[in-house]
């Protein structure tokens, strides 16, 4: 009985955030446009020297993905904090750390998944070889949920602050660095035609670790921020 | 057990399982090739990229360092005691560069099998000792090697 | 039904002690009014009772157990309406209530339609909450109290933006909740005509 | 007995007085060790068979790097205590440790860079050890920034504690990076399981310096903690009494 109601609470919350995102779809599109624009700036700024673009491409796309994720984070808890829904979430009769997973999933579906979808296009713009594009998509698929999970902790810590944005990036970006290193390394290694299973294992390990610890840390941080 | 305790226990178990899985994945990754540089053996075996810059690490082979006429370009062999790769570098070498020393160099592998480096870094080891001790150790080691050889010969 | 008890509560904000050594208990059927000047810590006390805010010292217990240890097991008995309504502006009143119901322990005896009806929101149930007036939004927030089986209502200035009719109606609702064995703790500046209320003044 | 002492130490006025009495002693000892360590390390110890005189920077670099990790772990542990048992003093110790730890991390990075240029041939290289140590600096700065951004200091301390605990995942990464990856940075010397591969005349000054740095941290942290306590408890009776005694 309680499992059933937990599952329905999870589903209701997930659906709520998706519906809200849909009703504000213009805002949701912003990080995605930002991602595409930032990546497009590099060929414009560096000149369309193909080998060079190939060399910097994986790093550029991943840095852009990082910044786009950072930009989208604020939306995860800010409006809930301002209208009081976050207090209500904390007072739910279900464990907060599980409800937080619903919110993070919604955030990823709305902001992370689109990045994965448009990534091949950007790979083509930066003239990455086909294998590298496939790996790019794979690393983004594994890596962007980590960004949402770690980001949730950062937003939860800064949600009560009036100018939390700068601090948020100071807290979150260092924690993003390992993802960036291994993911862009995997893509450029794949471009060189070398097996990348090791990097994928590492990213997988980070994902599992973030999945099991970040929700707890987020719930604890929200508790602190609301008190 | 109260339902609350039970729930908490499940949660702890899930988290522990998560951490365990993560560790397992990470350890699997370390069994694969995840490294800062390639060794000469791997280069010889064709594991290093051909049209991509990479790092090559190894020991400078004794007696292999030759300076070109321009005084800046150096050629030397890097070895991991199994295989060796010839490295060519133009520029100023670090203090610690000498024969027998560990080196990490970054560059590309040419079609002729020569590694053209655009950066040479000297990797020093974790041993610290005064020169006289190092000498003494070296002699002792050589004697030790001779000793074992003598033993083998006797047997 | 368990009772809510507070022992030696202390609360400080930015190094200033708002109250300390505060103790009281709330039995089923009782209504507790928290009084005091602005900034005397009424809202902080309510949030401590909710379990959102940690007291700097002391203990709040529900049926003899620390509410912070009980966590969600305590929250299934609690419904809180704070300064901020806690409704999503882009969702309709009906959607808002459906979410509130799923977050707590749903009350099977109450239909969402009845709640909307009771708070005069029935005709507005398919427009975004953003288009509702402040008083209507407040009524929607109060509607949350009915959709779950919460017995303890914690209300921070529940009468804000309500008209005379709404106030009377809600007073009556609180009274009925008390008669049915529920408990209410509220802060308000309105003179409330409720029998059998307990009062705590934080300013004295 | 011990628990009672521990509990007493947890009360701010007691800790304030206790730390006040401890500081001059520890500070003096720290100074003596620092001078001895530097004298032995820079003048008495022999030069290295490979690196000559340049290796002497280990007397600053290695203890700073150790302290950067040690202080982070202390900070996170105090943070955990502060979160679980809501102990005021643990909050204060955690938050007072952060600036000292950040300074040591910075010092380790700078001295490492100074060492790297002549030895490796580069000021900086993005290998695992160096990158993860740089991340540690950012983690420290994040903790400090978060703490100062939140107005209510108790809330701030708890938020900073959570961040510190989250950042702990970086610590094993730094420590084991030289073993897990083929880094440019050399492997551990003193802490490896078999006998340290360093001459004893070089090891002794290193250990003395390490102890001196540890004492420096404790003294500095205690001084900061005293200030923090005074500013947090400025409205309490014991601070008022203290101020009165000072004036009178």
List the helices and strands and how they pair.
The complex is a heterotetramer of chains A (227), B (155), C (204) and D (248).
Chain B: H1 3-31, H2 40-44, E1 54-60, E2 66-67, E3 73-79, E4 84-90, E5 102-109, E6 115-123, H3 131-154
Parallel strand pairs in B: 4-6
Antiparallel strand pairs in B: 1-3, 1-5, 2-3, 3-4, 5-6
Chain C: E1 4-13, E2 16-26, E3 31-35, H1 42-50, E4 57-62, E5 65-66, H2 67-70, H3 72-75, E6 78-81, H4 93-103, H5 112-118, H6 134-147, E7 152-156, H7 164-179, E8 183-187, E9 197-201
Parallel strand pairs in C: 3-8, 3-9, 6-7, 7-8
Antiparallel strand pairs in C: 1-2, 1-4, 4-5
Chain D: H1 2-9, H2 12-44, H3 58-85, H4 88-119, H5 128-149, H6 153-167, H7 170-180, H8 200-232, H9 237-247
Helix pairs in contact in D: 2-8, 3-4, 3-6, 3-8, 4-5, 4-6, 4-8, 5-6, 5-7
The gist of it:
The complex is a heterotetramer of chains A (227), B (155), C (204) and D (248). With 155 residues, chain B is of the alpha+beta class.
Description of the molecule:
The complex is a heterotetramer of chains A (227), B (155), C (204) and D (248). Chain A has 227 residues and is an all-alpha fold. Chain A has helices at 2-23, 25-46, 50-73, 78-83, 85-90, 96-125, 130-158, 164-191, 197-226. The longest helix of chain A has 30 residues, at 96-125. Chain A is elongated, with a radius of gyration of 18 Å. Chain B is built from three helices and six strands; from the N terminus they run ααββββββα. Chain B has a five-stranded mixed β-barrel with strand order 1-3-4-6-5. Helix content of chain B is 37%, strand content 26%. Chain B is α+β, with helices and mostly antiparallel strands. Chain B folds into two domains: 1-34; 37-154, Beta Barrel (OB fold (Dihydrolipoamide Acetyltransferase, E2P)), CATH 2.40.50. Chain B is elongated, with a radius of gyration of 24 Å. Chain C folds into two domains: 1-77 and 151-204, Rossmann fold (3-Layer(aba) Sandwich); 84-149, no CATH class. A five-stranded parallel β-sheet of chain C has the order 6-7-8-3-9, sandwiched between helices. Chain C has a four-stranded antiparallel β-sheet with strand order 2-1-4-5. In chain C, a hairpin with a 2-residue loop joins strand 4 and strand 5. In chain C, helix 4 packs parallel to helix 6 (134-147). The model of chain C has no long low-confidence stretch (mean pLDDT 88). By secondary structure, chain D is mostly helical. Chain D has helices at residues 2-9, 12-44, 58-85, 88-119, 128-149, 153-167, 170-180, 200-232, 237-247. In chain D, helix 3 crosses helix 6 and helix 4 (88-119) packs antiparallel against helix 5. The two termini of chain D are 36 Å apart. The model of chain D has no long low-confidence stretch (mean pLDDT 85). Classes of the chains: A mainly alpha (227), B alpha+beta (155), C alpha/beta (204), D mainly alpha (248). The interface between A and D is medium-sized, with 23 and 21 residues.
């Amino acid at each position: 009985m309680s499992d059933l109601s937990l599952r329905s609470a999870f589903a209701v919350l997930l659906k709520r955030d998706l519906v809200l995102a849909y009703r504000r779809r213009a805002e949701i599109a912003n990080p995605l446009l930002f991602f595409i624009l930032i990546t497009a700036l590099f060929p414009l700024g560096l000149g369309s020297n193909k080998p060079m673009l190939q060399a910097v491409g994986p790093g550029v796309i991943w840095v852009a993905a990082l910044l786009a994720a950072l930009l989208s984070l604020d939306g995860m808890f800010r409006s809930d904090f301002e209208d009081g829904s976050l207090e209500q979430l904390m007072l739910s009769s279900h464990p907060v750390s599980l409800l937080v997973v619903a919110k993070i999933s919604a955030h990823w579906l709305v902001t992370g998944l689109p990045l994965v979808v448009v990534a091949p296009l950007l790979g083509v713009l930066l003239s990455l070889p086909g294998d590298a594009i496939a790996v790019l998509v794979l690393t983004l698929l594994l890596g962007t949920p980590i960004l949402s999970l770690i980001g949730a902790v950062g937003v939860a810590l800064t949600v009560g602050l009036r100018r939390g944005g700068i601090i948020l990036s100071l807290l979150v970006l260092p924690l993003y660095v390992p993802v960036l290193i291994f993911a862009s390394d995997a893509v450029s290694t794949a471009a060189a035609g070398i097996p990348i299973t090791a990097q994928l294992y590492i990213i997988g390990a980070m994902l599992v670790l973030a999945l099991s610890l970040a929700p707890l840390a987020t719930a604890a941080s929200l508790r602190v921020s609301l008190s | 057990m109260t339902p609350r305790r039970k729930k908490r226990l499940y949660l702890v178990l899930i988290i522990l399982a998560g951490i365990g899985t993560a560790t397992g994945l990470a350890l699997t990754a370390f069994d694969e090739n995840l490294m800062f540089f390639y060794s000469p053996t791997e280069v010889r075996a064709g594991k290093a990229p051909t049209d991509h810059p990479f790092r090559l690490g190894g020991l400078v082979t004794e007696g292999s360092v030759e300076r070109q006429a321009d005084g800046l370009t150096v050629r030397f062999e890097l070895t991991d005691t199994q295989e060796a790769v010839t490295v060519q570098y133009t520029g100023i070498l670090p203090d610690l560069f000498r024969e027998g020393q560990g080196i990490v160099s970054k560059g590309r592998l040419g079609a002729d099998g020569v590694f053209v480096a655009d950066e040479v870094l000297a990797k020093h080891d974790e041993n610290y000792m005064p020169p006289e001790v190092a000498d003494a150790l070296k002699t002792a080691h050589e004697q030790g090697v001779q000793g074992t050889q003598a033993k083998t010969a006797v047997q | 039904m368990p009772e809510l008890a507070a022992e030696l509560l202390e609360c400080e904000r930015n190094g200033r002690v708002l109250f300390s050594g505060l103790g009281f208990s709330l039995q089923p059927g009782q209504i507790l009014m928290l009084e005091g000047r602005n900034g005397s810590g009424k809202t902080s006390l309510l949030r401590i009772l909710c379990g959102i805010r940690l007291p700097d010292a002391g203990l709040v217990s529900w049926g003899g157990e620390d509410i912070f240890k009980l966590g969600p097991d305590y929250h299934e008995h609690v419904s809180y309406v704070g300064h901020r309504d806690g409704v999503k502006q882009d969702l309709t009143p009906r959607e808002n209530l459906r979410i509130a119901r799923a977050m707590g322990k749903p009350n099977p005896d109450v239909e969402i339609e009845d709640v909307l009806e009771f708070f005069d929101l029935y005709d507005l149930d398919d427009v975004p909450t953003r288009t509702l007036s402040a008083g209507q939004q407040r009524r929607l927030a109060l509607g949350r109290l009915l959709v779950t089986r919460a017995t303890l209502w914690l209300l921070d200035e529940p009468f804000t933006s309500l008209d005379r009719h709404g106030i009377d109606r809600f007073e009556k609702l609180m009274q009925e909740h008390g008669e049915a064995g529920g408990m209410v703790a509220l802060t308000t500046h309105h003179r409330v005509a409720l029998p059998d209320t307990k009062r705590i003044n934080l300013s004295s | 007995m011990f628990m009672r002492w521990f509990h007493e130490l947890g009360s701010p006025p007691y800790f304030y007085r206790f730390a006040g009495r401890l500081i001059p002693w520890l500070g003096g000892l720290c100074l003596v060790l620092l001078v001895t360590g530097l004298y032995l390390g820079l003048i008495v110890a022999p030069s290295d068979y490979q690196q000559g005189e340049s290796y002497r920077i280990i007397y600053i670099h290695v203890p700073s790097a150790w302290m950067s990790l040690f202080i982070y772990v202390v900070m996170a542990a105090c943070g955990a205590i502060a979160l679980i048992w809501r102990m005021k003093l643990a909050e204060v110790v955690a938050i007072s440790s952060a600036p000292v730890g950040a300074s040591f991390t910075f010092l380790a990075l700078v001295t490492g860079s100074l060492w790297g240029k002549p030895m490796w041939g580069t000021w900086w290289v993005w290998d695992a050890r160096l990158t993860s140590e740089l991340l540690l600096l950012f983690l420290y700065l994040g903790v400090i920034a978060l703490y100062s951004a939140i107005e209510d200091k108790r809330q701030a301390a708890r938020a900073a504690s959570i961040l510190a605990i989250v950042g702990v995942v970086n610590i094993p990464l730094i420590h084991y990076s030289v073993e897990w990856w083929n880094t440019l940075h050399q492997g551990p010397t003193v802490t490896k399981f078999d006998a340290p591969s360093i001459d004893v005349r070089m090891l002794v000054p290193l250990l003395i310096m390490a102890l001196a740095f540890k004492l420096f941290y404790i003294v500095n942290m205690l001084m900061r903690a005293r200030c923090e306590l005074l500013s947090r408890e400025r409205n309490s009776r014991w601070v008022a009494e203290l101020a009165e005694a000072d004036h009178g």
